[in-house]
Amino acid sequence: MTTPGRRDPVQEGRAGESPDTAAPMTFALTTDAPPMESVLARYDSVGWSAYTSDPETLGRALHGSSHVVCAWDGDRLVGPARVISDGATIAYLQDVLVHPGLHQRGIGRRLVQAAFEPFAAVHQKVLLTDDDDSQRAFYTALGFTETHDVGPSPVRAYVRFDG
């Protein structure tokens, strides 16, 4: 992760029409450490209470991530994405979320692309997500394949949730 408090613009993007106005929305992608109150508000807006119920652990998770990218609309955190990686063989997309009022505007796509940019040479990029048709559509549009769809030699994925 980058130095806390540093706000380095990565790129600006356009995300279609803003829900509040008819003008196109422009957002900035940064690799800064977002303020915890902004992070909590964004995670809460998508109902990820497992994260918001323990802000200290969420803060440690963000700080311990290999790469964090945030989309900003001015001073409003639109969404973060973070990757955990060894930098050589695997890059795991842990979180990507966008304010619910701004879905389907290309922000999530750009967040995922920017989150994986430092890991372009890494062959194995993985994630776990909800069993939801919109999630499947989003990730397959980004080139991901569900493990049960890989052939002819199937890949198996396992997960263990403790406590």
The quaternary structure here is single chain
Q: What overall form do the CA principal axes indicate?
A: globular
- Name the CATH superfamily assignment of the domain at 9-122: Gcn5-related N-acetyltransferase (GNAT)
- CATH hierarchy, class of the domain at 9-122: Alpha Beta
What report would you give on this structure?
It is a single chain. The protein is of the alpha+beta class. The protein has a domain at 9-122: 3-Layer(aba) Sandwich (Aminopeptidase), CATH 3.40.630. Helix content is 26%, strand content 26%. It has 5 helices and 6 strands. The chain has helices spanning 36-45, 49-52, 55-64, 107-116, 133-141, and strands at residues 9-17, 24-30, 67-73, 76-85, 90-96, 124-126. A 6-stranded mixed sheet has the order 1-2-3-4-5-6. A hairpin with a 4-residue loop joins strand 4 (76-85) and strand 5 (90-96). The longest helix has 10 residues, at 36-45. The radius of gyration is 16 Å and the shape is globular. It starts with 8 loop residues before the first strand and ends in a 22-residue tail after the last helix. Mean pLDDT is 84; it is low at 1-12 and 14-23. Keywords: Transferase. GO terms for molecular function: acyltransferase activity, transferring groups other than amino-acyl groups. Residues 1-17 have a biased composition (Basic and acidic residues). Residues 24-162 form the N-acetyltransferase domain. Residues 1-23 are annotated as: Disordered.
